[in-house]
Protein 1
Amino acid sequence: MEAAAMRKASSQASLADPDDFDLTRLLNHKPRINVERQRSFDDRSLGELSLAGAGAGTGSRGGWGYYGVGVESYESMYSPGGGLRSYCGTPASSTRLSFEPHPLIGEAWDALRRSIVSFRDQPIGTIAAVDHSAAAEVLNYDQVFVRDFVPSALAFLMNGEPEIVRNFLLKTLLLQGWEKRIDRFKLGEGAMPASFKVLKDPKRGVDKLVADFGESAIGRVAPVDSGFWWIIILRAYTKSTGDMTLAETPMCQKGIRLIMNQCLAEGFDTFPTLLCADGCCMIDRRMGVYGYPIEIQALFFMALRCALVMLKPDAEGKEIMERIVTRLAALSYHMRSYFWLDFQQLNDIYRFKTEEYSHTAVNKFNVNPESIPDWLFDFMPTRGGYFVGNVSPARMDFRWFALGNCVAILASLATPDQAAAIMDLIEERWEDLVGEMPVKICYPAIEGHEWQIVTGCDPKNTRWSYHNGGSWPVLLWLLTAACIKTGRLKIARRAIDLAEARLARDGWPEYYDGKLGRYIGKQARKFQTWSIAGYLVAKMMLEDPSHLGMISLEEEKPTKPVLRRSASWTG
C-alpha cells in the first residue's frame, strides 16, 4: 500500500524512488561547472590550523552524504542557482533538470514573492507573514526576521536570484553597527537584530529602518541565533554564487569578527557550550530551554565552521581563527560525549551513581537517574539516538528538538554513525516526531503541573501547541537536507508528501496543533512566509541535491602531527 502511494507521488514529485534511481548518476550527467572561484574559500579549511581539510567518511549507508558522494563532497560542490532563472515562477532547478513541477510550486512562489519588502526600491527581505484575514493582528509579523529569512534566502539562491540575499546581508550588517540598549544596559557590539522593519517617512519621502534587538520581544531576550544564521546565510550566498568579494569586504570581515568575539569571550564557564537565556532562539518564549540548548550549540558549531573558512588570515583574523579551532575541538568532543543519547547511553545513565567527587567520576554532571522521565524508556528504540535538549550540572533535558538535531547533521557536529542513528530514530518514531504534518518542533509536550512551572502558565504554549510539541512546516527543509546528506530520501519524500496534501489547502499556516499535528494552530498565522519558503527549499533540494552544498559541511578529519627529529637524535 505504502509503496503504491510512493510511486503515485513520484509522478508529481522531484525524484524517482531512491531504490530505483542511482543519485550519483544525477550528478554525473549534469554539465560540469567551473568551481575554481567558489572552492577557494573552503579549500582553506582547518588543515592550515592543525586540522585536515574536509572529507566524507565511508560507512554502511551507501548513497549520498556522509558515506561517499561518488563525485565531489558537498563542501566543494557548487550550487548552480546563480546563473539560471526559472520560467513562470517555478524553480530554476525544475527547468534545468526537466522535472515535472508539482502544481503547488507556482502557488508557493507567488506567495513568497508577495512577502518581499523593499528599502529604497531594493528588495531586502521577506516579512514573517502576509495574513490579511480580519482576525489577524499585525503585531510584529510585518517585520523581516533574521531566522525567518533563512529559508527564503535559500529559495532565492537556489532559483538564481541572489540580489535580495546580498541586500539583506548588507542591511543587517549595518544594523549590527547601531548602538543597542535595553533600558540602561548596552548590548555587545556583535549582537545582530532579531528583526527589522521598513518605515515610510511621508514628510521626507524616504524609507528608514527600525531594528529590534530584543527590546520589543516578549520577555526582552536578545536573539543569540541571529548572528549565527547571518554567518550561515553569508556562506550559502558565497557557495551559491561563487562570489567571494562580499564576504571578503572589510565590513563583512568585521561583522564576522564581532560575532565571533562576542560568543568566544572568556568568562566563568567550565564548558565550551554557550550559556543562554530562555527564549533566545526559534523557541522565543519560556519553554525551559535556558542553559545550553541544543539548537544554539548546533548553530554555534556551524557558525564557527563557516566563519573559519570565510575569515581572512590577516592580523585581525588569524587570532580569531586560532580561537575558533580550539573551541571547535572542545565543543565537538563535549557535544558528542555528553549530549548524545541512545539505548546504551540511556542504560548507563539509568545505572549512574551520584555524588561522585574526583577526576575519575563517571557521572560528570551528577545527573540523578530518578530524573529520567518515564516516557523515555518506551520512546528510546534499540536502533537510533539523538542529541538531548540540554545538559548542565544535575540537569539533563531529555526532550527531542528537531532543529538542533538536523543542524547537527548538516554541520557534521554529529558523527556519521550519530547522523544515521538520528534518522533511524525518526523512522522508528515517525508518529511521535512527524505525525500527520512535518515536523514536530520538540517531543514530548510538557503538561499539567510541569507546564505551569516551566512555561509560567503560558496560554500560547499549551500541550501539543506552538513551541510545546507543535508541528512546524518550516522544519521540512531542515529534515529534507538531513535526509539527503544521510542518503535517506524515502523519509524526505514521505514528509513532503504529507505537507503537500494540506499546506496550500490550509493557507500555509505557521504551525499545527495536536499530538499528530492534525489541526491548524490555535493562533497560527496564515501565509506564513517561512512555511512557504521551507516547502520550496525542500522541493528544490530533492530535485537537485547539489543545492545541499550551500547549507551542508563535511566532517573535518584531524591530521597526524608532523614528526620532526629532535636535537637529541641528531647529536
Note: Residues 1-80, 82-98, 559-571 have pLDDT under 50 and may be disordered.
Protein 2
Amino acid sequence: MANKRARVMYDFAAEPGNNELTVNEGEIITITNPDVGGGWLEGRNIKGERGLVPTDYVEILPSDGKDQFSCGNSVADQAFLDSLSASTAQASSSAASNNHQVGSGNDPWSAWSASKSGNWESSEGWGAQPEGAGAQRSTNTPNNWDTAFGHPQAYQGPATGDDDDWDEDWDGPKSSSYFKDSESADAGGSQRGNSRASSSSMKIPLNKFPGFAKPGTEQYLLAKQLAKPKEKIPIIVGDYGPMWVYPTSTFDCVVADPRKGSKMYGLKSYIEYQLTPTNTNRSVNHRYKHFDWLYERLLVKFGSAIPIPSLPDKQVTGRFEEEFIKMRMERLQAWMTRMCRHPVISESEVFQQFLNFRDEKEWKTGKRKAEKDELAGVMIFSTMEPEAPDLDLVEIEQKCEAVGKFTKAMDDGVKELLTVGQEHWKRCTGPLPKEYQKIGKALQSLATVFSSSGYQGETDLNDAITEAGKTYEEIASLVAEQPKKDLHFLMECNHEYKGFLGCFPDIIGTHKGAIEKVKESDKLVATSKITPQDKQNMVKRVSTMSYALQAEMNHFHSNRIYDYNSVIRLYLEQQVQFYETIAEKLRQALSRFPVM
C-alpha cells in the first residue's frame, strides 16, 4: 500500500538531535509512519530526509493526491473542516508573522500586546456568546477565531485516542534524569508557536464549537428539579457582600526541579516538573500536557462562573533551552499559586487529585472520573447555595453591568501598561545602554586626546575623565539588567491579570443570556409553555448565578489589591535602589576631579 502524502500547514523548525524534520508551509511530504505517538508522525521530504513532524502541522491529502483545499467536496462536514483548517492556517501564519516583526530576544512580552485578552470590542457580543462551560477567550489565539467560532480559548482536548499515551506516560520517576543544558544568552528565548490551536496535543472535536454544543443556561434554568449534588459550594454574605467560604487552612504548591525525560525508546524527549503542596510536602511529577489536562478540566467545570486563565503557551521549538524551561516553570508556578489561592478551585476534587495521587492506578481512576463529571458548565451553579434572600431581576442586571464595566476598563488599563512596559523594556535593553556606552567611550577618547598634548599639569584631569567614561559604561550595564529586577515582575503580574480579564466577556455573556431568558419567561407563561412555578425557579436560579458572580468579584478584588500593592511596591523599591546605585557611582566619578 502506497504511503499517504500530506501538505504542511505551518512552518516547523526541527530541534537539533531530536529526530525531527524541518518543514515549511505549503510543502508536500510523504507520511512514512502516521502514528508515532504523542501527537507526532514520521515523514519524508522531497530530498529524501526523514524525521518527526507534529501531526497538527500537516493536512493529509486525499488518496487521489489532490489537495483538498484546491478542489470541492460534496460532504458538508468535510467542507466545514476544510474551511476551519484553512482559516486556522492563515490566521496562525499571520499571527506568527506579526509576532516576528515586533518580537525581540530581550523582550519576553513582545507577543502579548499583539493579542487580545478578550472580545471587549463590542458589548453586544457578550449576550451572544455561547453559554456553556469552556466558553472563554484565549489571549494567544488568532483573531479569526473570535468571529468564526465564538470562544477560541475553549480547550480542544487531548488527541483522539491519546489515552494510551496517557497510560504510558503517567508521572512516575522511572524515565527521568536531572535536566542540565547550556544557558541561553537570549533572555526571553526565541519563542514560537504562540497559538494554542497549533499545539500538537490540540485536536478539534466538533462538539467543542458553539454550533455543536448542548443548550446553555436553559439546561440549568429550566431543569424541572435539580439533583442534590454531594459537593456543595456555599456563598455567604460578608462585610463586602457575597463571598466564597475560605478554607480554615490554605496551601501553595511549589513547582520546581525540571527534569528531562524520554519515551519511545529515547526517540522523543519531554520536560516534567516536581510539584510539592505545602500542606502535605509530598511531591508528584507532572508534564506540561498534564497541566494542560488540568486546565481543560477546570475550564469545563468552573469556566461559566470562575475565570480560569490559560496556561503559558505550548512550544515546539526551543523547548529544552534552559532559559525557556526557567520561564515556563516561573509561569506554571504563578498559575498554580493562583489556583491554590482560590477557595473553590483549591478544594475541588479534580485539583486535589492532581496534587495528591499516589500511584498510576489512582491517577488513571481520578482522571477518568473527572472527565465524566456532569456537574460542569452552567450546571456548576446547581452546587452553589447562597445564604441570602433571592435578588430581584433589576438588581441582578445592575450587578452584571457593573462587573462588565469594571473588567472592561481594567482590561484596557492592563493592556496599556503592558504596551508601555514592553516599549520601556526594549529601550532599556537596546538604545538606552548604547547611549550611555557612547558617552563613556566619547569621554575616554577625549581623555586620550588630552593626554597627547604633552602638557604636564593635566594628568589628574585626564584620569578623572577616563574614570567618568568607565562609569558611564558601568551605568549602561546597570540599565540593561535593571528590567529583570523590577519591570519583569510588574509585567508578569499584568500578564496574569490579562489572562483573568480575558475570561470575563464570556462569563458576563452567560449571565446576560440567563437574564434575557428570565425576561422572556412571562411570554412563556402566557403561552403555557412553562408554569408560574417554572418562572419562579428561573428567577431563583439566576439570583444564585448573580451571587456567584459577586462572590467571584470580591475574591478578584481582594487579590487585585494585594497583588498590585505588592508588585508596584517592589517595582518602586528596586527603582530607588537602581537610581541610588547610579548616583553613588556618579558621586565617586565626580570626586576624582580636581577642585580648581
Note: The chain is about 45% helix and 10% strand.
Protein 3
Amino acid sequence: MAYYGISTNLIIFLTKKLHQGTVASANNVTNWSGTVWIMPILGAYIADAHLGRYRTFLIASAICLTGMGLLTLAVSLPSLKPPPCLDVNKGNCKPASTLQLAVFFGALYMLALGTGGTKPNISTIGADQFDEFHPKEKAQKLSFFNWWMFSIFFGTLFATTILVYIQDNVGWSLGYGLPTIGLAISILIFVAGTPFYRHKLPTGSPFTKMASVIVAAVRNWRLPLPNDPKELHELGFEEYAKQGAFRIDSTPSLRFLNKAAIRRGSSDSWKLCTVTQVEETKQMLRMIPVLICTFMPSTMLAQTHTLFIKQGTTLDRSIGSHFQIPPASLAAFVTISMLLSVVIYDRLFVKIMQRITKNPRGITLLQRMGIGMILHVLIMIIASRVERHRLDVARQNGQVGNGSGQALPLTIFTLLPQFMLVGVADAFTEVAKIEFFYDQAPESMKSLGTSYSMTSIGIGNFLSSFLLSTVSSITHKHGNGWIMNNLNASHLDYYYAFLAVLSAINFFLFLLISKFYVYKAEVSGSIKALADELKDKKLKPFSEKHTHT
C-alpha cells in the first residue's frame, strides 16, 4: 500500500506540484522505482551474510517508516513546495528550489533504501515457513507465491483507488499520511508473530562463495578434471547436517567451474571449493540469462505508472455530473484483473494442466513466464492502436496544439483494455518470476535468488528511462518528437509500437534460452511424490474401470 500509494500517482505530483515536464517527471518516477527494485540485492546480501532475514527486515522496516514520515512532511509543509501554477507548459512555472527537491527526493530514496531490506526478505521468510521435506507443506508452498501476490494486490487496490482519490481530491498530506500509519501497523503485526516463525540463520556471503568458486576455477584451469566426480573435493553428509544445509552432487553443466573442486593439497578457499559450493554457484549463474530476458517485461510494466497515466490526464474523466476519476486510479484495474487471474490460474488452470502434463505446477515456471511475455507484446500493440485513435480524436477536434489542458471528448475508459491485460500478464510473468528465482536458488542463497526478481523490475525501470530519453532526444532532432509535454502533438503510438517490437525480439530470445535451461535437482523428494500422486490419480480410475469391465 505504501509503495504503490506513492509510485502510482508520483508522476502527477511531480508535474502538478513540482512543475516538471513529461520526460523529466517520467524519468524521475522510473529512476526512483528502479532504485527501489534494485536495492534488494544489498538487502539480500546483508540477510544471507550477516543479520539473517528477520533482523534485516525489522531494521529495513524502521528505515521505510522514517522515509514515509519525511515524505509526508515534504508534501504537507508549504515551505517545502513551490507556489501553485496552473499553466500547462510547466516551463513557465516557478521550479522547485534545491532545498525542496533535496527534502522530497531524500525522503523518496530513504524509502528506497528501506525497501531494499524488506522486499527480498519478507517473501523469503514466508516461504521458509513451509517444510521442504514434508509433501503436504511442499504442495502448499507451490501455491504460496500465488496467494502472496494475491495478498499484496489488496494493498495495491486500496492504494490505486482510495489513496489516489484522496491525493487528487482531498490532499497529499492525508494521501501520504494514511500509508505511513498503515506501514506502522503492519510492522507491529509482523513483530507480534515472532514467536511462531521458523527462523533460518545466515550462512555467509553468497557473493564471497560465488567469487571464490570462480577464482579457484580460473587458478586451476590448467589442471585436468578427474573422470569420476567423486574424486572432487566434498564434505561428508554429517558436516552439512550440522549446519542445517544440503549437499549437492556434481553436474556436467558449466564443467569449467568443476575445476574449483580439484584437490591440490591446499585448504585455501580461494584455491579449493567443495562440489556443493560449485553447484550453488552454477545454480545462480544459470539463472542470469533468464534474468536478462525479464528486463523487457519490466520495462513494459513501467509504462503503467508513467505514460499510461499521462495519457489519462488528456481524456474525459467524468463519471456522472460530479465525479472525476483520478487518472492513476486506472491502475486499480491492473490489480483487479491480476487478482482474478491469479485465482483462476491457481484454482482452475493448474488443475486442468496437471491432468495433461502430470506436473504439480500444471506448467513449468518458464512456460508460465513465456505466456506473460506474449501478452506483453499484445499489450503494446493494443496501446499503440488506442493511442492512434486518441490522436485522431485530438485532430478531429482541433486540439493538437491544445495548451489549455482541456480534456478530449473521449472517455478515459478507452485505456481500460491495456490496463486489464497488464494484470493478466502479471499473473503469469511476475508470479512465475518470483517463484522461479526463489525455487531455483540454492537453499543458502534464497534471499539473493528472490532479489533477482526484484532486480529485474529495477533494471526494467532504468531501461525505461534510457529508452524514453533516447527516443525523445533522437525524434526531437529529426523533426516531430514522439514524446513531448503536449501529448496531443506527440507520437506515443510510434513509441508503443517500438516497445512491441522490442518485446517480440525479447520473447524469441527467451524461447532460445528456455530451451537450454536445466532445472536444478530437488533437495527433497516432495515434488516427485506429488507428481507420482498425480499419475496414480489418473491410473486409479482406469484400473477401477478395467476391473469392473
Note: The chain has 19 helices and two strands.
